[in-house]
Amino acid sequence: MARVAVRRPLTYARALAAPLLAAVLLAACSSGNASTPPATSAPATTQPPPTTQTTSPPATNSGGGTATLTQGANGALVFSPTTLTVSEGTTVTVKNVSSTTAHTFTVNGTKINVINQGGTTSKVKIDLSPGTYPFVCTFHQAQGMTGTLVVTD
Question: pTM for this structure?
């Protein structure tokens, strides 16, 4: 006798199982859990980006002495001054005056890359050839936290 394939009718529970499972998985993947921040390469900041950027007068220094660069003054994502002129061999004190937001002082095209957590200070010796170098906060460059370093003889 030949075998005949018999199809069983779907039960109500089996018919709902696949759509229900899909809905649960979709909800789990898209849930807005406020306690888990999205992954980013920069620390979270509680301050909105500045709507205007202020320009500070250039700071100058000669003779291989010291100079100061401030990060995050008045809660803004800015360097002060935005143009820093120093002589070769100067030690720059980089002060992060924000109490909670980390910033970097990164001179593009060089090995200078200082990370300052909120409220900390670092010192970096500028042993660069005379010239003009752009610097940025890599965490907030998109928000305009940039500047210019001018190194003289």
Answer: 0.60
